[in-house]
Design a protein that fits this description.
heterodimer, A: alpha/beta, Rossmann fold, four-stranded parallel sheet, 14 helices, 11 strands, B: alpha/beta, eight-stranded mixed sheet, 16% strand, oxidoreductase activity (chain B), iron (chain B)
Chain lengths: 359, 272
């Protein structure tokens, strides 16, 4: 039987396994995703993904198809409808380089054998991704299952030739500032001479997945992706750093960690970054010594401990005073990534502090 | 209109009992509808003289449900008994339980659920919500458990009693236990055993149907006993059953046994 890993704030952290998987799989741009279930399971995901693309100024339409199951398919079995949808997907123009087939709650309930249908030879990889949420999965489970499914497009090569480069693994494609965060990791790694090999998965093609194994290090977006990091270590013998960095000290630790994993002395890079951070902080001298009052980001959200740590760190660095009458500042959500994320956060603080002063 | 459902372990003789019950009730001049709720779709076959009538779900699969009429799904068999078979998906695929629900919705829409008595003949175990459909939403108000004296048969009957107890708590459901029918395997002391079982689950033995070769011979001739051997003792047994059920006004909410209770109870009656 399943067990549902229930964090305290379920409305934010649980969610649909299917949505989690689609947030990854639709970023393989030359693939088609087929959702095996009633058409509604596609519709709300399509809307979400489309809106997110538009919010990021990308005039694209996610390539999603539904098997559009109705009651009769449930009674008599939906495998034929899946066959037809796969054929429809393969006949699209331009032809997809890969097809991902995602299951839903209802098809797992009636026991449709999605994997068996996908296993037929069709000349193009057709990959089944288990995404029925009622089996205990949450959004994050979908992300993990999808990353493993995409990884299966690359030939396992534990002895693959490594280049001094990194994969960004499991970027949160629905999060605000996802490209800024990736750029920040690229900037940090470049201090160590490490380039970006592959954004796994964001804005890539099926063929790109072939070089997944050639990075020297996988940088996971967050520690929850450790099982994916382990999976990639088994498949390609690639070590991983388990999270994008949060805050200033966290960013310097990240450089040390990435250096250690790649066998590079990071001390010079850490000192360069420290100076860069000091310079960044100096631009906020005008708010130094102000009074602030931190608030929960939203009544429905629990505060992220990383975010609290970053706020404490910046409060000390800028000599701010925490006072109930101070400028109301929400804890950031999620915690800011790298020095650049911290700078953007401090910019918001300065707007709030000056706004309060003008009153 | 009285609506009853027969439940019991697979192979215990529900369909034989149901068909003979329908035939006997029709003989009293009543308008009877028998609905087979089992993908095996063999409930009404003896009433139809061996013919396999088209099932509701076969028709839905082939034509969609929009154009189906009452005449496509209801067939008149022996004694004017109207026969329906729900049918189901191919074995090993899809969801037969949902099929039963769809069948009921269609019959409801076609206004086919009418007559003096409707008899629902349901597959062996209440494996899911779909197969509990005849007990739900006010369809069958009386459930009759068909069982022999064998432990596994009593076990299945006890499980069905659990379903009745659960469903009887619902506001929309008027489902109760009408009684226990012992379809005998000719085990020693079988009648006493089943009678005591019925008492312990807060019900009563409403009929004892002895094992009789006439049943097999009638089936080989693709007929119910009522039709094939109307003068036989066995036909009289089924007519008694029909009268008992028709006149039954005593129903109950069952008190199913725990597994260990059931086992120790069965042990009491076994001759060691």
């Amino acid at each position: 039987m399943n067990s549902n890993p229930s964090p305290s704030n379920s409305s934010r952290f649980e969610g649909c396994t299917l949505t989690g998987a689609l947030s990854v799989l639709t970023e393989v741009r030359d693939a088609v995703c087929i959702v095996h279930g009633p058409s509604g399971c596609v519709h709300h995901n399509f809307s979400l993904l489309h809106a997110t693309l538009l919010a990021n100024d990308r005039l694209e339409v996610p390539r999603l198809l539904s098997t559009g199951l109705t009651e009769n398919d449930i009674i008599f079995g939906g495998e034929e409808a899946l066959e037809e949808a796969i054929a429809r997907g393969l006949s699209l123009s331009p032809a997809p380089a890969a097809v991902f087939v995602l299951s839903t709650c209802i098809v797992e309930t009636i026991g449709d054998d999605t994997e068996a249908v996908c296993a037929k030879a069709r000349g193009v990889p057709v990959i089944a991704v288990p995404t029925a949420g009622f089996l205990g999965g949450v959004f994050e489970t979908g992300v993990k299952n999808a990353l493993s499914a995409v990884a299966s497009l690359a030939r396992p090569a534990p002895a693959a030739e490594k280049t001094l480069s990194a994969n960004l693994v499991g970027e949160k494609n629905l999060e605000y500032g996802v490209d800024e965060n990736a750029a920040e990791i690229a900037r940090l790694l470049s201090r160590l001479g490490i380039g970006i090999n592959l954004r796994f998965v964001r804005g890539i093609g099926t063929e790109d997945v072939g070089r997944l194994g050639s990075a020297a290090v996988n940088v996971l977006r967050e520690p929850a992706l450790r099982p994916v990091g382990e999976d990639l270590r088994r498949r390609f013998n690639t070590p991983y750093v388990d999270s994008f960095p949060a805050g200033l000290a966290g960013t310097r630790r990240f450089l040390e960690e990435a250096g250690r994993v790649c066998g590079i002395d990071a001390s010079a890079a850490v000192e360069e970054e420290r100076a860069y951070q000091a310079e960044m902080l100096s631009r906020f001298s005008e708010i130094a010594g102000s009074r602030v009052c931190f608030r929960s980001p939203h009544p429905m959200l629990e505060t992220d401990p990383d975010a609290v740590a970053v706020c404490t760190e910046c409060t000390e660095a800028l000599n701010l005073t925490v006072d109930p009458d101070g400028a109301a500042i929400p804890f950031p959500y999620p915690a800011p990534v790298g020095t650049a994320g911290t700078r953007r956060m401090l910019h918001r603080w300065s707007v709030l502090i000056r706004g309060k002063e003008r009153k | 209109m009285k609506q009853i459902a027969l439940y019991g372990k697979g192979g215990i003789g529900k369909s034989t009992t149901a068909a003979n019950l329908s035939a006997a009730l029709a003989g009293e001049g009543l308008d009877i509808l028998q609905i087979g709720c089992d993908p095996k779709h063999d409930s009404t076959r003896m009433l139809m003289h061996g013919a396999w009538i088209p099932t509701v779900l076969d028709l839905i699969r082939e034509r969609g449900d929009a154009s189906i009429t009452v005449d496509d799904v209801v067939y008149r068999g022996f004694g004017g008994v109207r026969c329906v078979e729900a049918g189901g998906p191919e074995p090993g695929i899809g969801c037969a339980g949902r099929g039963i629900i769809a069948t009921f919705q269609l019959l409801e829409r076609l206004e086919a659920l009418k007559g003096d008595i409707i008899i629902y003949d349901v597959l062996g175990d209440v494996v899911c919500g779909g197969f509990a459909m005849p007990m739900r939403e006010g369809y069958a108000q009386e459930v009759y458990l068909v069982t022999s004296g064998e432990l596994m048969s009593l076990y299945a009957a006890n499980n069905i009693a659990k379903a009745i107890t659960r469903l009887s708590r619902r506001a929309r459901s008027r489902c109760t236990l009408g009684g226990v029918i012992c379809n005998a395997k000719n085990i020693e002391g079988e009648r006493d055993l089943v009678e005591e079982f019925a008492r312990r689950i807060n019900s009563r033995l409403i009929a004892y149907v002895p094992r009789d070769r006439t049943v097999q011979i009638a089936e080989l001739n693709r007929q119910t006993v009522i039709e094939y051997a109307p003068e036989s003792d066995q036909a009289a047994v089924y007519r008694d059953l029909a009268r008992a059920i028709r006149g039954n006004e005593t129903t109950s909410i069952p008190t199913p046994l725990e597994m260990d209770e059931l086992e120790s109870f069965a042990l009491e009656f076994v001759q060691v």
